[in-house]
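Hi W., the zinc ion complex you wanted:
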Amino acid sequence: MLQTRQLMDNLYCFEDGHVRQFLITAPDKALLLDAGYADSHLREAVQAVTDAPVQLLLTHGDPDHAGGMADFPEVWLHQADWPLVKNQAGLHPLQEGDLFACGDYLLEVIEVPGHTHGSVAFADREKRLLFVGDTVQKGGPIYQFGTHRSLREYLRSLYKLQGMANQFDTLFPCHYDCPIGPEYIEHTLQDALSLWGNQLPSTDTPDKPCRTYQGRWTAFYCTEEDRQR
Ligand SMILES: [Zn+2]
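Structure:
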């Protein structure tokens, strides 16, 4: 069951206790960031807020973010993540610098590969907001295991976000606490660097083929093999 929460004027999120989606509304259109799981019934939750036509922008192609995309007619996803979704017919490609306007929001695509090769964040520079997908989290664990992820790319993307961190006041992650402050870019980077350097304590993960690496501010699902990827 999805819970709907209003975050700011014309900005809502939907949450099922594991993952969240964001909705920006205007009289003539709406922007939906992520689609949730295939069975999350997000469309009904969106329609309870707005009957305007919806453009769906995906932060990445993992099933908890893209699973419900078939319920929406217009879907945008970075091409590097197209292999992760079942139906690629009619998909629109996202890339660095693409702009999406909705009411007084203006979202700019920032490529942040690593969590997946096609991960993106959406920045509203005027409002100083950053929708970070799964790239920055407070608490975690962040999924960083499997062949469609790269810790090396992920570190480069966190350095990229660190370089623009002073342009933002508020971060909206898809998992765990939301909103969080921009200092979590630096915190996540420091923990990811410790993961890369094999300095984080780890424990077995029940029900998942990976270990849980515990950082100071967040955690990662990863394996020894994935650490080198
Ligand atoms: Zn996720």
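Helices lie at 42-47, 63-66, 151-162, 183-196, 224-227.

W.
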